[in-house]
Automatic annotation (TrEMBL):
Domain spans labelled VWFD: 66-224
Keyword tRNA-binding: no
Subcellular location per the Swiss-Prot or TrEMBL entry: Membrane
GO cellular component, one term: membrane
Primary location group: membrane
Keywords of this entry: Disulfide bond, Membrane, Signal
Protein name (database record): VWFD domain-containing protein
Lineage: Eukaryota, Metazoa, Chordata, Craniata, Vertebrata
Organism: Myripristis murdjan (pinecone soldierfish)
Entries under PROSITE patterns matching the protein: VWFD
Amino acid sequence: MKLCGCMYKGRYVEAGATFLSDDHCTEKCKCNPANNKVVCTSPGCQNGYECKRVDDLVGCHPKAYANCSVSGDPHYSTFDGYTYNFQGTCVYQMAGVCSTDPSLEHFDVLVQNDARGKRVGSRTKLIKGEITYLPVNLNHGKIRIYQSGDFAEISTDFGLKVSYDWNSIVFVTVPSRYAGAMCGMCGNYNNDRKDDLQMKNGKRASSPGELGKSWRVAEIPGCVDDCKDKNHCPNCDITEKEKFETNKYCGEIRNPNGPFRRCHDKIDPQPKFESCVYDACLNNGKKGSWCNIFHAYTIECQRAGIKVDRWRRKDFCPASKMEHPKNSHYEPCGSVCHVTCGIGAPPSDCDKPCEEGWLCNDGYLLSGKDCVPIDQCGCMYNDKYHKYGEVFYADQHCTENMTVNPNVSVAKVVAVEVYGNILILRRNQIGVVMVSNAWCCCENLDLHTFLHSFISSLTSMQ
Ligand SMILES: [Ca+2]
């Protein structure tokens, strides 16, 4: 005899069947044939797995990539999710490829910590002194460096992404084919967090200090590998520490009813909480010293597609204290798929989740680190962005005539892009006025007049 099933939210479920109650893998349910009732538990997805739809079935599937982060003062979270604090101030290998597998592109990401934060660089010389403004394309577009939200992002054609908030947060994202091939402060990405304190010689480090020493790649005058200087080591008496642990300070990050509650299952708030208390102690509770940890956790949650409630207030990490350009405004969940000067339009497949940060006001676009009126955008020249009015050496002459692409309809065209000497007309696809990559190599051309006359000529053609 067939057993009776259960009714769940108006639908019939067969006896003994298990299913996910929603598209977020937060609840796994089973129809108990003994009493015809559905029982649900909250498994979430394990580390290294994410909730997604594959072949029309929602479930926990292996992530196609792994993230390592450094934030605050500084706190490391490895690809496998191990967390530790390390305050060395020399230059260290944050992540690198140690496998000799010839099918993998080789790269290293190096970080240097100083009192003000981190500098990120790379042994492959992704960033050189000559580059001053973003975006920049290198190696014929194989490496792109651009602004994404408040972060500078380096993206390569083999799937490596490095993002840096210009202050104290660095994320390194590598695709899953690098699993087990990595080494450095971010660990080996073998889905086992227990072996992540591995030194360059393959042995396990007894402390983060020893780990850092082994991954040091350069010294700078006065740099130290460990927390030797008592003035720069956390020093908190128990009363102070207990104060920082309350919801008025760091406790808010793990408050089950707080702004990050939806994120707790996916990204463990406990290490963030501990980092926060550590930083608050280190800075004697100086206002805002822990805000970077909140900011980094917010970005991590948002990048995982999880909504974070607004937590910045006038008296708690006010947004106005974040570094930001003039003519911009704060958004707790702003689009990072926006247009910046030098990029006529974001990639059509840009489906990144929103991030908190400062966005240029309407009518302004990001030029380097400033928000400028649209007609004061600079241009891309030889794959590098140059600010409007910037004087630089161009290595070729610009004497050819411009050609309008005859295949593009002019209807609703609001902007013009210039690629070399070809103009491409762009439609307004995302609700903001897009702007051309300005024509910048012709000294005698007045950009403002040029754009306006061109756009009005389009309007009159309609
Ligand atoms: Ca590991």
